[in-house]
Known about the structure:
By secondary structure, the protein is mostly helical. It has one domain. It contains five helices and no strands. It has helices at residues 2-13, 18-46, 59-68, 71-84, 91-105. The chain is elongated and about 70 Å long. The two termini are 25 Å apart. 0% of the residues are buried. The mean pLDDT is 92.
Amino acid sequence: MIADVADYSEWKNNRRATAIIFSAMMVGLKLGLTIGSSLVAKILSVYGYIPGSENIQTEFAIQGTKMLISIYPAIPFLIGVSLLFFYEINKKMELQIESDLKARRN
């Protein structure tokens, strides 16, 4: 999808911006990893998880751990799937962009 966005940008603006698009993607990825890992630590602390004591956890901490590997990851996944409904580049548009760019370059 990132390459499609780069092609779309060139198609719309008559200028190739691949480097900035891929850089923005990498910043977004690293930001997401940072926020995600800090949320995991925060959620574990809210549920009272005690690090280093795998055999002695409260029922609340065990419930939190179960939620952390089931329900909580489903929330951003469903948000991402919902946002895909607004993604404008479909197969037909991709082929149109490809042919227009090929004609423009020749």
